[in-house]
Specification:
Length: about 80
């Protein structure tokens, strides 16, 4: 399956969030989640994603929001 450049870019952000969470980099995970949300909404508005991708990305965002909702600043 071929992916758009935008989807590949968003997948890169998702992978970074996974790395941040795996390494307990809470602040970075929260910042990258904000970036993912912003870039996803911009791509949706611009019509750069297929409906299936939109649904999948929104599910991923919801999952990570639940993961980070109780994070406190570490500094």
């Amino acid at each position: 399956m071929f992916q758009s450049k935008k989807r590949k870019s968003l997948d890169g952000v998702i992978k970074q969030i996974q790395v941040d969470l795996a390494n307990n980099y809470k602040d970075n995970a929260v910042e990258n989640l904000k970036r993912l949300k912003t870039e996803t909404e911009a791509a949706i508005t611009a019509g750069e994603l297929k409906p299936k991708e939109v649904t999948e990305l929104r599910g991923i965002i919801e999952h990570y929001e639940n993961d980070v909702k109780n994070f406190k600043r570490t500094y």
